[in-house]
Write a structure and sequence with these properties.
Shape: globular
Distance between the termini: 20 Å
Radius of gyration: 18 Å
Helix content: 25-40%
Largest sheet: 8 strands, parallel
Low-confidence stretches: none
Strand content: 15-25%
Number of helices: 11
Number of domains: 1
CATH topology: Arginase, Chain A
Mean pLDDT: 97
CATH architecture: 3-Layer(aba) Sandwich
Strand order of the largest sheet: 2-1-3-8-7-4-5-6
CATH superfamily: Ureohydrolase domain
Length: 306
């Protein structure tokens, strides 16, 4: 039987972020041994290196968006790389980079699902809903907008990547771990019916129930995409991010989340976003991220008979 191929796609940019440093994320994940960990699970790893793209000009917002032209270029290049990987039946793993890159990644996955008749489910593991628009946030940082853009709210340069606007419906998204949402953004989330399992929900119901709900309704025709923002984790275990928010999932809660995703056998693409080595301690956050990624591919802390 042919081994499954995981294609690593490095995207070294912090073009959509409010702090510099996420551009170094792909290398930190490689240094933390990502490829070797995946190979230990009988996967074939094809690391295509880092995609090329424009430098970060570090300018203030222009008409509500920072670096719109550069954000478009990075996301179009990423879209093309992810779409090509899926066409080869590879599992693309995007190594970010800031979370604005979810636009290019998920628009490519959505396009692939349209072309193959698959049903898309997106798990958005994050401290933030990322459902802002230029009207809702003064910062203009696009890493706070990717889910809104994917759902058709934003400049046409971004909403049109992938060839269909909107790229996805809010109904395909399940957000987990959310604990920092702007007031206007909160109203916008409710208006569009985004399904959010925030930290209060996880506190009250537990991670197991949360994941059962988030994964419900999938079948053999489901393409599951996991978009993992490292700030999903509590900063006590993952300090190396530009937008830390206290009170995130613990190490064990995060492990259970990943193991339950692995149990479905449906994950077919993923992002690892917002790792910022400039803010980390001895690459600790990258090591935790790689450990959790390993759980997505079948490592389990439980002693179970198969």
């Amino acid at each position: 039987m042919q081994k499954q191929t995981v294609q690593l796609i490095g995207v070294p940019t912090d073009i959509g972020a409010g702090a510099r440093g996420a551009s170094m994320g792909p290398e930190a994940l490689r240094v933390a041994g990502l490829a070797a960990v995946l190979e230990s699970h009988d996967l074939q790893v094809h690391d295509i290196g880092n995609l090329p793209g424009p430098a970060n000009p570090w300018l203030p917002p222009d008409q509500g968006y920072r670096h719109l032209k550069e954000v478009e270029q990075w996301n179009q290049t990423l879209h093309d790389a992810v779409h090509a990987a899926l066409a080869r039946d590879h599992l693309p793993m995007v190594l970010g980079g800031d979370h604005c890159l979810g636009i290019g990644s998920i628009s490519a996955v959505a396009r692939h699902c349209r072309e193959t008749g698959k049903t898309l489910r997106v798990l958005w593991l994050d401290a933030h809903a990322d459902f802002n628009t230029a009207e809702l946030t003064p910062s203009g940082n696009v890493h706070g907008m990717p889910v809104a853009v994917l759902c058709g709210h934003g400049p046409k340069e971004l909403t049109g990547i992938g060839g269909t606007t909107p790229a996805i419906s809010p109904s395909v998204v399940r957000q987990i771990g959310i604990r920092s949402v702007d007031e206007g953004e909160k109203r916008f989330v409710h208006k569009h019916g985004l399904e959010v399992f925030d930290m209060r929900y996880i506190d009250e119901k537990g991670m197991r129930h949360t994941m059962e709900q988030a994964l419900a309704g999938m079948d053999d025709n489901t393409h599951l995409h996991v978009s993992f923002d490292v700030d999903f984790l509590d900063p006590e275990i993952a300090p190396g991010v530009g937008t830390t928010v206290p009170g995130g999932p613990t190490y064990r809660e995060a492990q259970l989340c990943m193991e339950m995703i692995a149990d479905t056998g449906r994950m077919a693409s993923m992002d690892v976003m917002e790792l910022n080595p400039a803010l980390d301690v001895r690459n600790r956050t990258a090591l935790v991220a790689v450990d959790l990624i390993e759980s997505l591919f079948g490592k389990s802390t439980l002693m179970r008979k198969g």
